[in-house]
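For this section, I looked closely at the sequence of one protein beside the tokens encoding its backbone, which the following lines show:
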Amino acid sequence: MARTTLVESALTLSAPAQQKLKINGTDGTFGDWRDDLVRDGYAVVKGAIPRDRALHYADRMLSLLESFGTGYDRNDPSTVHPDKLPVINEKGMLLNYGAAHEDFVWAIRSEPGVISAFEQVYATEDLLVSFDAINYGFANRAHLPANKPDGGLIVCKGAHLLSEQFHEDMKGEERIPAWTNEWYGFTDAGMAWLKDHGGEWIKVEAEPGDLLLWDSRTPHYNVPASGTQDRLAVYTCYMPVADASQEDLVRKKAAWDAKVGTTHWPNALHSGTNVAMRNGKPDSIVRNEPLNKPVLSERAFRLTGIPYIKV
């Protein structure tokens, strides 16, 4: 069975700073993927991670699932079932069990080809990284509805530049309930607005080791696979240290110490838990730390934000 391993990342655009990409129609041209990001709201950085290493990370992702001892076997498609897996949400995200801090997840966050892309976007080496989720887009999750043949990221091309107008026009609409105001769910009326304003939904195509970037204002969602190819991804998001407060950094250190996730926000706007809930009750599987603890390089340790905390 073929498997794809990707790194996915939403750009968290915060307070403007000199030399950052503005992504507001005033940036110049660069002759590379940045032009795609500025124009379309998303981009694919080809080969950000060498293919052989990407496939190694895919193997590690599947080994992690097998380590829970619940019956999952990568060679037996029938075991891709909630009863034989740790708790993975309907979007394919593994959020608990210390998984955000597994050594291979940190290796991906530390990949030079991944970090350098964000250094180009933000024009700084002083970055924070999110402690984000692993995503398993299995082709054989029979309990989920069928969708695109290999699943993946769907984006509304160019709609990031319509964001301000959209929210002005739709400000009177009742929002879909969300656990955080940073998440915005599109209603039928919102989807119709995007269509009427030229929004085009694109399935982003990529190969093992590609980095998928998108502006967080770009309407997007992911879908499970329905063909024969699994789609495995790690979410990782970066932002300049300068855009985080000391309170943010202290909160981020607490998340590091507890080995919990922080969602897409690199400044740890939200911190998660390692207690997974199965059918409304705490899962019988308890992991409060990663199975394989990371040993961080100096560069990776800086990404935690801890060295920037003022004593």
The first helix runs from residue 33 to 40. The radius of gyration is 19 Å.
